[in-house]
């Protein structure tokens, strides 16, 4: 029995000590950056009605949600993703608001992924959403915020890959592709399986001009020339608009000196179907997945009764933490930490501690422990104390 | 982005690893350490080109690549489909060609024509389930075996099997035959999603060279 009490279920974990200190530091730095950019806090419930995360909304598949029932028999879901929750809340409280709304949040999300994949089921997300802003400048602002956030968190080497979902949708509608073919194509393109994609398009009698255009999905780093060439090839209006957006974005970010951090990749198609325009992910060394994911979702709020454009992203705090721990980019000043031990005179030790704390030093007061010298030395070392004061 | 980082290859142990290394050698990527048959090393390094290689059980290769322990993996499509990991599948090596098939005694052919429940033994439960559910719309009991799957119908454990068929000689010797073909298989190159972005230039170069060699 006892051994079972000690364990946590697969996919969740305890986090404590230095690791948690680092995690909180990262979260605070990210959050400070959001606040400095004018985002205000919002907190939504940990669980909501199933409909907020249903297939119609376009978040993760239903089978990966943690579901349970309330006393009235409603299906409730532990949030797998903040965006639908925040969209719901903003549609509810700012239905008539026409000016831009900027909100940020942090909290844990829950996804019931399959076992033994080395992935956590409970993860911390820190994110922003900006509503009622559909200009290219909002897109540029968001990408800049992604870059500023990562720089603030202490990362130097990272890539923000940018794509546009409208380009893929535009090409599909130009080619008159059925929904089933579109779904399969989505799969091939997002797994960069281009030889299969080409075979598949050819076997479905898609004409070769369109196949050539699909060929551009294969590049992970599209140059300006590629985007311009593509613009001459593509006929679909929405696809052209998507390319125009990317070119404009490139121009703005280059002028800001941020082009070294970005890469254009049209093959990025999120599994979240609510995205409607630009979509982006940030990658760095040390982790096998993206550390930031986001994009534009202009139709989502409408499903909650407010027709408004929106764009947002989340920082996957656990992935970012792993990357910083593995690549050693930690650059935080640690506060000085002192241990004060006393035998009888607690009040004297307390007074000493107060004095130290006033000057910003961490002062830890304990009754002299019954340890031998070696045990005590190791205790001091593990605790990270720079000095021991015996009263 | 960073030329000082190693590019790590995970190769599926066995014949495929040898064939893949031969192909890589033609593109100028060599690893002399690996040629030593008696070595007990697990990881082989080419310091000059900043490359590392290791051999892993085929089913583990997609896992190493998904989690970023390896940047590039070389493994059969059967394993990729069965493991269903989030990796980029970037190149068909056109080697190790074979087929995934439903096999059994002649008499089992009749059972596949209806949607009655049958028992299927396989090393590939994901692929088998996907085929029977989504393509054939037939209810099946899947029995996972770890080897000598052909035994299933012979000893009466299952009605048929889903397995890889290369020449078909093992089947014939045991009185079994291919009843239906599920799909063609071959070896593939897979790439980690982050590596594809962070080390794009070097990885693309390696893949383009391999592709040129295959297309010849």
In short:
The complex is a heterodimer of chains A (391) and B (216). Chain A is an alpha/beta fold and 391 residues long.
Strand content of chain A: 15-25%
Secondary structural class of chain A: alpha/beta
- Chain pair sharing the greatest interface: A-B, 23 and 24 residues
Mean pLDDT of chain B: 90
Question: Could you name the CATH class of the largest domain in chain B?
Answer: Alpha Beta
Order of helices and strands of chain A: HHEEEEHEEHEHHHHHHEEEEHEHEHE
Question: What low-confidence regions of chain B span 5 or more consecutive residues with pLDDT below 50?
Answer: none
Oligomer: heterodimer
CATH topology of the largest domain in chain B: D-Maltodextrin-Binding Protein, domain 2
What would the principal axes of the Cα set say about the shape of chain B?
elongated
Q: Mean pLDDT across all residues of chain A, rounded? A: 89
From the alpha carbons, calculate the radius of gyration of chain A and give it in angstroms: 25 Å
Sequence of strands across the biggest β-sheet of chain A: 1-5-6-11-10-9-7-8
Specify the number of helices of chain A. 13
How many strand elements of chain B?
11
Query: Which segments of chain A are poorly predicted (pLDDT under 50) over 5 or more consecutive residues?
Result: none
Major sheet of chain A, described briefly? 8 strands, mixed
Helix residue percentage of chain A: 40-55%
The portion of residues assigned to helices of chain B is: 25-40%
Write the layout of secondary structure elements.
The complex is a heterodimer of chains A (391) and B (216).
Chain A: H1 2-6, H2 17-36, E1 40-41, E2 47-49, E3 67-69, E4 75-78, H3 82-93, E5 101-110, E6 122-131, H4 136-152, E7 158-164, H5 165-174, H6 179-190, H7 194-203, H8 208-215, H9 224-233, H10 237-255, E8 262-264, E9 278-284, E10 292-296, E11 310-316, H11 317-327, E12 337-342, H12 346-358, E13 362-367, H13 373-383, E14 387-390
Parallel strand pairs in A: 1-5, 7-8, 12-13, 12-14
Antiparallel strand pairs in A: 2-4, 3-4, 5-6, 6-11, 7-9, 9-10, 10-11
Helix pairs in contact in A: 2-4, 2-11, 4-10, 5-10, 7-8, 9-10
Chain B: E1 7-12, H1 15-26, H2 32-35, E2 43-46, E3 51-56, H3 61-66, E4 72-76, H4 77-83, E5 88-92, E6 98-104, E7 118-122, H5 125-135, E8 140-144, H6 151-154, E9 160-165, H7 169-173, E10 177-185, E11 187-191, H8 193-198, H9 200-215
Parallel strand pairs in B: 1-3, 1-4, 7-8, 7-9
Antiparallel strand pairs in B: 2-3, 4-11, 5-11, 6-9, 6-10
């Amino acid at each position: 029995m006892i051994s079972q009490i000690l364990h946590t279920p697969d996919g969740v974990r305890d986090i404590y000590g230095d690791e948690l200190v680092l995690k909180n530091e990262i979260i605070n730095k990210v959050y400070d950056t959001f606040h400095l950019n004018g985002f205000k806090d919002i907190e939504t419930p940990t669980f909501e009605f199933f409909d907020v995360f249903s297939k119609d909304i376009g978040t993760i598949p239903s089978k990966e949600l943690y579901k349970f029932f309330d006393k009235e028999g409603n299906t409730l879901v532990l949030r797998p993703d903040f965006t639908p929750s925040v969209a719901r809340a903003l549609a509810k409280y700012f239905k008539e608001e026409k000016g831009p709304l900027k909100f940020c949040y942090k909290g844990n999300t829950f996804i019931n992924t399959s076992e033994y994949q080395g992935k956590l089921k409970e993860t911390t997300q820190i994110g922003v959403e900006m509503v009622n802003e559909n200009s290219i400048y909002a897109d540029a602002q968001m990408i800049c915020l992604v870059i500023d956030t990562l720089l603030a968190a202490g990362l130097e080497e990272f890539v923000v890959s940018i794509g546009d979902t409208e380009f893929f949708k535009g090409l599909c509608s130009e080619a008159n592709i059925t929904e089933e073919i579109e779904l399969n194509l989505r799969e091939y393109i997002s797994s960069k399986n281009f030889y299969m994609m080409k075979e598949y398009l050819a076997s479905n009698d898609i004409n070769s001009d369109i196949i050539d255009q699909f060929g551009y999905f294969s590049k992970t780093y599209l140059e300006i020339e590629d985007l311009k060439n593509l613009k001459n090839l593509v006929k679909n209006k929405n696809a052209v608009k998507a390319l125009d957006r990317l070119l404009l974005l490139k121009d703005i970010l280059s002028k800001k000196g941020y082009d070294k951090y970005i890469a254009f990749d049209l093959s990025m198609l999120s599994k979240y179907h609510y995205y409607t325009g630009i979509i982006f992910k940030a990658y760095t060394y040390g982790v096998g997945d993206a550390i930031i994911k986001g994009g534009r979702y202009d139709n989502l709020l409408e499903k909650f009764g407010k027709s408004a454009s929106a764009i947002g992203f989340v920082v996957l705090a656990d992935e970012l933490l792993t990357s910083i721990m593995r690549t050693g980019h930690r650059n935080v000043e640690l506060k000085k930490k002192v241990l004060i031990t006393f035998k009888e005179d607690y009040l004297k030790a307390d007074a000493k501690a107060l004095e130290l704390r006033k000057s910003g030093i961490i002062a830890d007061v304990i009754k002299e422990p019954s340890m031998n010298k070696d045990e005590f030395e190791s205790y001091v070392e593990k605790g990270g104390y720079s000095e021991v004061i015996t009263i | 982005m960073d030329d000082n980082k190693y590019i790590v290859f995970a190769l599926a142990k066995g014949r495929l690893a040898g064939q893949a290394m031969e192909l890589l050698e033609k593109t100028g990527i060599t690893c002399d350490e690996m040629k030593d048959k008696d070595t007990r090393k697990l990881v082989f390094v080419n310091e000059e080109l900043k490359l590392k290689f290791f051999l892993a059980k085929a089913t583990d290769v997609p896992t190493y690549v998904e989690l970023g322990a390896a940047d590039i993996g070389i493994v059969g499509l059967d394993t990729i489909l069965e493991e269903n990991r989030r990796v980029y599948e970037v190149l068909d090596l056109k080697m190790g060609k074979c087929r995934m098939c439903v096999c059994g005694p002649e008499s089992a052919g009749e059972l596949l024509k209806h949607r009655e429940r049958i028992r299927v033994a396989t090393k590939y439960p994901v692929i088998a389930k996907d085929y029977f559910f989504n393509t054939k719309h037939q209810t099946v009991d899947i029995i996972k075996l770890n080897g000598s799957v052909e035994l299933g119908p012979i000893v009466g454990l299952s009605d048929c099997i889903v397995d890889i068929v290369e020449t078909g000689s093992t089947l014939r010797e045991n009185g079994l035959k291919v009843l239906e073909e599920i799909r063609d298989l071959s070896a593939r190159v897979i790439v980690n999603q982050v590596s594809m972005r962070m080390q794009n230039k070097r990885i693309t170069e390696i893949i383009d060279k391999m592709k040129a060699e295959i297309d010849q």
